[in-house]
Amino acid sequence: MNRFDTKIAVLLRDDLASWQRLNVTAFLVSGVAHTTPELIGEPYLDADDTEYLPMFRQPVLVFSGSAETLALAHSRALTRGLRFSIFTDELFQTGNDVDNRAAVRAVPREKLALAGMAVHGPKNAVDKILKGARLHD
């Protein structure tokens, strides 16, 4: 088993519907992949040489927690200076990137209605950021 010095983690608010959890997770990890391209491995090939897109080289752990847990994690990530992606409730109502960014831009940081966030960083720092969250079941 490979051990990594870093961790990729997604934290979802625990009251989201199943479709929302899946949608939010997909959007959030795209931000991690974009800002940290070295996390992406090589393309996959099957036995017939059909090529498939590359994926993360390490596991992505998905956690859940209350709105308060998410707000604390957001604050801790900012304090530690780690870059992270966010998904707010308003993004469930928009349908494109321009409107998504405008919806986030319209709300002060302390009033963001966070549905989820994703972070990549040193394991210890990510663990401290996620304190109080539990692995998603």
Would you give an account of this structure?
The protein is an alpha+beta fold. Helices cover 34% and strands 25% of the residues. The chain has helices at residues 18-35, 67-79, 97-105, 123-129; strands at 6-13, 44-45, 51-52, 60-65, 84-88, 114-122, 134-135. The strands form two sheets. The chain has a five-stranded mixed β-sheet, sandwiched between helices. Strands 2-3 form a two-stranded antiparallel sheet. The mean pLDDT is 95.
Annotation keywords:
Bit1; 34% helix; alpha+beta; 4 helices; five-stranded mixed sheet; 137 residues; two-stranded antiparallel ribbon
Content of β-strand = 15-25%
Protein structure class: alpha+beta
CATH superfamily: Bit1
Any guess at the CATH architecture?
3-Layer(aba) Sandwich
**Mind summarizing the main beta sheet?**
5 strands, mixed
